[in-house]
Specification:
Blueprint lengths: L8 H7 L21 E4 L2 E3 L2 H11 L6 E5 L5 H10 L4 E6 L2 H13 L5 E5 L13 E6 L8 H4 L2 E11 L2 E8 L2 E6 L13
Parallel strand pairs: 3-4, 3-6, 4-5, 6-7
Antiparallel strand pairs: 1-2, 7-8, 8-9
Helix pairs in contact: 1-3
């Protein structure tokens, strides 16, 4: 596994969810490379060390309700489903119907029925109809804090997203967002509204 070797729920969930099984057949040989992999439709499957960092920051707990924005191939949605366990729920959204269809098939194949993926509704970020969420993972670069995603968090909820090149953790308390940047700089595809 990429990154730190210490045992953790994130590492166990990633080990149980091989990246190759969530990549298109033509690029599966790249699954073991710690780099983003193009999955078509101008989308990528993020590099494993970045996914691990984001999930460590997100701190998902069993039984939580989680939103996965920009779910792409479904890999992060599957990892999140393992982290929330049988009592939790994960909703993945993407703007590309073909990616959603493929991700849904992979989740069904792996018996992860507590996770659903859907095409993002026209003009909406996230899944406001399924809110509130305890955690939100955003796998696309935002230029400014997406307030409508902050509004989909419970109080004491947490969101991790790339914001103008930095990974940030956003916590919501009493309706207000607090932003904390993580070390390093990152590149992601841009966050787009459907």
């Amino acid at each position: 596994m990429f990154g730190r070797r210490r045992d953790s729920p994130v590492r166990r969930a990633m080990d149980a969810t091989p990246r190759a099984g969530y990549l298109p057949e033509g690029v599966r040989e790249r699954a073991g490379i710690d780099a983003p992999v193009a999955i078509g439709h101008e989308a990528t499957c993020s590099q494993p060390t970045t996914v691990r960092t984001m999930l460590d920051l997100l701190d998902v707990r069993p039984g939580q309700q989680v939103l996965d924005v920009g779910c792409g191939s479904g890999w992060t949605t599957a990892i999140l489903a393992r982290l929330v366990g049988a009592e939790g729920r994960v909703v993945g959204v993407d703007i590309v119907p073909e990616l959603v269809e493929d991700a849904a098939a992979r989740l069904r194949r792996d018996g992860l029925g507590r996770a659903e993926v859907r095409v993002a509704a026209e003009g909406e970020l996230g899944a406001p109809d399924a809110a509130p969420f305890d955690r939100i993972l955003v796998s696309a670069m935002a230029r400014e804090l997406p307030e409508e995603l902050v509004d989909q968090l419970v109080d004491d909820g947490r969101m991790v997203l790339p914001l103008e090149g930095r990974l940030v953790t956003v916590t919501r308390a009493a309706g207000e967002a607090k932003i904390e940047p993580a070390p390093g700089w990152y590149r992601f595809v841009p966050l787009r509204r459907p």
